[in-house]
Design brief:
273 residues, alpha/beta, Metallo-beta-lactamase, Chain A, six-stranded mixed sheet
Length: 273
């Protein structure tokens, strides 16, 4: 929600991102969704099958553009996946399933359409495309990341954005979980060849390790600022936001308040306040 990640914040959004990943940008820009939701069309080169990650909002034109993007490349959409259940990623999933005849798989059973769900450690094969599922809770409890090893890429939903930083959606999201998830992604970038972040919002990031390092440093800084604000007499999340997030657009303060509540809970759990 604040600051800039490594890389060019003005980079073009939408279109071919890697040999196996195409972004179709949804027309739902806002302070929270940045330029809009990135819907990802993933497919192995030469395969007739594709998978879509995060159909996005319930916007008929957008959903049909995703189908058209697949068909124009000679692809049939065989499966729909969700990184998490927030409406800007998942609201259009049921309608998209109707258009494509696909199941919708998610960690949250309430978001699934079909008999199968998703869980961390799962490996999917869609027409030769290998996609590994990572549990990355924190932004929400049901947040997943999809690892595309052939491209050295990860589809991160809202866990890592292409610009700015994400919120921890308290009480469903928990800061401790989020920090653990970032450390897991850091290990993947440092030791397992992950170079590229395909985010849920904003431009593609070419330096995955730098992006995760930035996120971890940003979280440590904010946590220290929240602790200092409490020591200075702030008693509510709203008071902390007014002090710590004074440089952030006020339209983002409600989201910042959720993150602060998550930080306060983390500090309390660890006996730091």
């Amino acid at each position: 929600m604040s600051g800039l990640l490594p890389g060019d914040p003005a980079a073009t959004i939408g279109g071919e991102a890697t040999p196996r990943a195409l972004c179709v940008l949804a027309p739902n820009p806002s302070p929270m969704t940045l330029d809009g939701t990135n819907t990802w069309l993933l497919s192995e080169p030469g395969s007739e099958l594709a998978v879509v990650v995060d159909p996005g909002p319930l916007d008929e034109g957008h959903l049909r553009r995703v189908v058209d993007a697949a068909e124009s490349r000679g692809k049939r959409i065989a499966l729909t996946l969700l990184t998490h259940g927030h409406h800007d990623h998942a609201e259009g999933a049921a309608r998209f399933a109707e258009l494509t005849g696909t199941e919708v798989r998610a960690l949250d059973p309430d978001r699934r359409l079909g008999t199968e769900g998703l869980h961390g450690g799962q490996v999917l094969d869609i027409g030769g495309l290998e996609l590994r599922v990572l549990a990355t809770p924190g932004h929400t409890s049901d947040s997943l990341t999809f690892h595309l090893p052939a491209d050295g890429a990860i589809v991160t939903g809202d866990t890592v954005l292409g610009r700015g930083t994400t919120m921890v959606a308290h009480p469903d999201g928990r800061l401790g979980d989020y920090l653990d998830s970032l450390r897991r992604l850091h290990t993947m970038a440092a030791e397992h060849g992950v170079r590229t972040v395909l985010p849920g919002h904003g431009p593609v990031l070419a330096d995955a390790l730098g992006a995760v390092d930035y996120y971890l440093a940003h979280r440590a800084t904010r946590l220290a600022q929240v602790e200092t604000a409490v020591e200075a007499g702030c008693r509510t999340a709203a008071e902390v936001v007014a002090r710590v997030y004074a440089d952030v657009d006020r339209t983002l303060w409600p989201a910042a308040e959720l993150s602060v509540q998550a930080q306060l809970s983390y500090l309390e759990d660890h006996g730091l306040i």
